[in-house]
Amino acid sequence: MATKIGIIGDGNVGSALGRGLTRAGHEVRAAGKDKAAVLQTAQWGEIVLLAVPFGAIDEVVADAGEALAGKTVIDVTNALDASMNLAIGFTTSGAEELQKKLPKARVVKAFNTVFAQNMDSGRLGDKPLTAFVAADDALAKKTVMELARGIGFDPIDAGPLKNARLIEPLAFLNIQLGYALGMGTQIGFKLLHG
């Protein structure tokens, strides 16, 4: 079933997920930094995907917060500081902090462990990449898992939203392997399961 998906963030990540979701048959609208467009996109979308830098979350919440009430909000951000180190962890996560800022929304952590160039297909070559999906709301999590499957990912129920404390460092490991350790961006995680 086609869903209206608003994407806040029109960079590499938002654009790639937009292509994948459009190809999967959904109606997609994206907004960049324009405050009015962010609000309109948040109001329009049945599901809203946040594909912005971690440091921009507060601005998005200020611009679109009330429009996100009652909606599934997919947090694709990497909780990194300006020095490209983990900004938060151990006792909370970026996704949990977002849920506190948007108490009426259903926050789901997903897609952040994959490099942007693989997000539109959910694959590395012909192999599906794992999309780890964590949320406290079971229906929101199921919906995001279906979206991920539609793009081409192998979605995995990663448990409650507090497990974003594990998913966010996994994304940081991916970045370290790809950039700091020189493996490049043609890498990705695949959970083997029977």
Task: Reconstruct the topology from this structure.
Elements: E1 4-8, H1 12-23, E2 27-31, H2 35-44, E3 47-50, H3 57-64, E4 72-75, H4 94-101, E5 106-109, E6 123-124, E7 127-128, E8 130-135, H5 138-151, E9 154-157, H6 164-180
Parallel strand pairs: 1-2, 1-3, 3-4, 4-5, 8-9
Antiparallel strand pairs: 5-8, 6-7
Helix pairs in contact: 1-5
CATH class: Alpha Beta
Number of strands: 9
Average of the residue pLDDT scores: 96
The structural class is alpha/beta
- Quickly give the CATH architecture: 3-Layer(aba) Sandwich
State the domain count.
Answer: 1
What is the molecular shape?
globular
Catalogue the unreliable spans: none
Largest sheet: 7 strands, mixed
What is the helix content?
Answer: 25-40%
CATH superfamily: NAD(P)-binding Rossmann-like Domain
* Beta-strand proportion: 15-25%
Please report the number of helical segments: 6
Summarize the model shown.
By secondary structure, the protein is α/β, with parallel strands linked by helices. It contains 6 helices and 9 strands.
Structure description:
The chain has about 190 residues and is of the alpha/beta class. The protein has a single domain, classed as Rossmann fold (3-Layer(aba) Sandwich), CATH 3.40.50.720. It has six helices and nine strands, in the order E-H-E-H-E-H-E-H-E-E-E-E-H-E-H. The chain has helices at about 10-25, 35-45, 55-65, 95-100, 140-150, 165-180; strands spanning about 5-10, 25-30, 45-50, 70-75, 105-110, 125, 125-130, 130-135, 155. It has a seven-stranded mixed β-sheet with strand order 2-1-3-4-5-8-9, with helices on both faces. The protein has a two-stranded antiparallel ribbon with strand order 6-7. The longest helix is centred in the last third of the chain and has 17 residues, at about 165-180. About 45% of the residues are buried.
